[in-house]
Specification:
alpha/beta; Aspartate Aminotransferase, domain 1; about 35% helix; single chain; 13 strands; Aspartate Aminotransferase, domain 2; seven-stranded mixed beta sheet
């Protein structure tokens, strides 16, 4: 049965703007590294509170290229969270470095600064915090640790477009930040796309060179780069959608507030909003009876997903990097459930979802150990 309230729909609600963007590129006949990309890079840098933005092929590539531009690679360790999409840690491996996992704060669900401190070794070169679900990691504490140990910080902001931490835009704390424009993101393209933002002009220039095969001039390669360029059609679409992003973000926050109000007293745990700058890429609840909860919602036509059911160091691909414990991350991975939340969701639908959860009677007591 097709859910009456699907988790989300990727059918464009802004079809006229998308077609306008595509037609503009087709009429110009310039498809790679052209004026649409340059315009989007300027606009996205301004929207992100950064001096520079460099469009690349994916959010994963954005992390890889930021690390490489900082000189981080073989022989270096990068501390990151075990609770994220595996691509966060995969990017570290792609850069040639070794991921080291530091557990999450059980309340905030982002990387725990105390766990970062405990994970630092003489080989540690950088910290890669992930702003998970649209909520910023505790950047003031993380930056203090980085400064004390002389470490670079690259922010994984792939789920956190326009998010802030204590009033400051995410992506402007570290040396650089990575954003993804995968179609499901708060600012999504019609395919893969990403960007690196930074306030360092020389770092931005090196990322530009690395994304384009290490070229300084046509056919002149000064270093080993990659082919990871944000194309003109995606850039044009993103430029059109960027103008709507503040309003979409306001709507996500309003829907999240309504969820919180309606779920008060419900048999689930709603992780707290640690910072008002949360942009709610996802709205997550926790339950020790997650499978039962999801089945209850599915039977009533409500779509749900899990982000993420397996912590990264428990993935088969990362067994070589699975030293240490991630008890809080493992608990969260076993309990989190994402509810529908996107700008096309209505308040009435939020009320239906919340009421359906509130009337759920789990076979055994629900909740989370936190």
């Amino acid at each position: 049965m097709r859910p009456s309230i699907p988790f989300m729909s990727l059918v464009p609600s802004d079809e006229a703007a998308v077609r306008r963007a595509i037609d503009r590129v087709l009429a110009r006949g310039w498809f790679i590294l052209g004026p649409e990309l340059e315009a989007f890079e300027r606009a996205f840098a301004t929207a992100s509170g950064a001096a520079h933005a460099v469009g690349v092929g994916t959010g994963t590539d954005a992390i890889v290229l930021a690390l490489r531009a900082l000189g981080i690679g073989p022989g270096n360790e990068v501390i990151t969270t075990p609770l994220s999409a595996a691509f966060s840690a995969l990017a570290i491996v792609m850069a040639g470095a070794t991921p080291v996992f530091a557990d999450v704060d059980p309340d905030r669900l982002t990387i725990d600064p105390a766990a970062i401190d405990a994970a630092i070794t003489p080989r540690t070169a950088a910290i890669l915090p992930v702003h998970l679900y649209g909520q910023a990691a505790d950047m003031p504490r993380i930056m203090a640790i980085a400064a004390r140990h002389g470490l670079a910080v690259v922010e994984d902001a792939c789920q956190a477009h326009l998010a802030t931490c204590e009033g400051r835009p995410v992506g402007t704390f570290g040396a650089a930040a990575a954003f993804s424009f995968y179609p499901t993101k708060n600012l999504g393209a019609l395919g893969d796309a990403g960007a690196v933002v930074t306030n360092d002009a020389s770092l931005a220039e090196r990322v530009r060179r690395l994304r384009n095969g290490g070229q300084t001039n046509r056919y002149e390669h000064v270093e080993m780069g990659v082919n990871s360029r944000l194309d003109e059609i995606q850039a044009a679409i993103l430029s059109e959608r960027l103008t709507e992003l503040p309003a979409w973000t306001d709507e996500r926050r309003a829907l999240a507030r309504r969820y919180r109000e309606r779920l008060a007293g419900a048999p689930v745990v709603v992780p707290r909003e640690a910072d008002a700058g949360h942009v709610y890429h996802l709205f997550v609840v926790r339950s020790a009876r997650r499978a039962e909860l999801m089945a209850h919602l599915d039977a009533r036509g409500i779509g749900t997903l899990i982000h993420y059911p397996i912590s990264i160091p428990r993935q088969a691909a990362f067994q070589a990097f699975a030293d240490g414990e991630g008890a809080a991350a493992d608990r969260a991975a076993a309990e989190v459930c994402s509810l529908p939340l996107h700008p096309r969701l209505t308040k009435a639908e939020v009320d239906v979802i919340a009421e359906t959860i509130a009337t759920w009677r789990p076979a055994t007591p629900a909740g989370s150990s936190g």
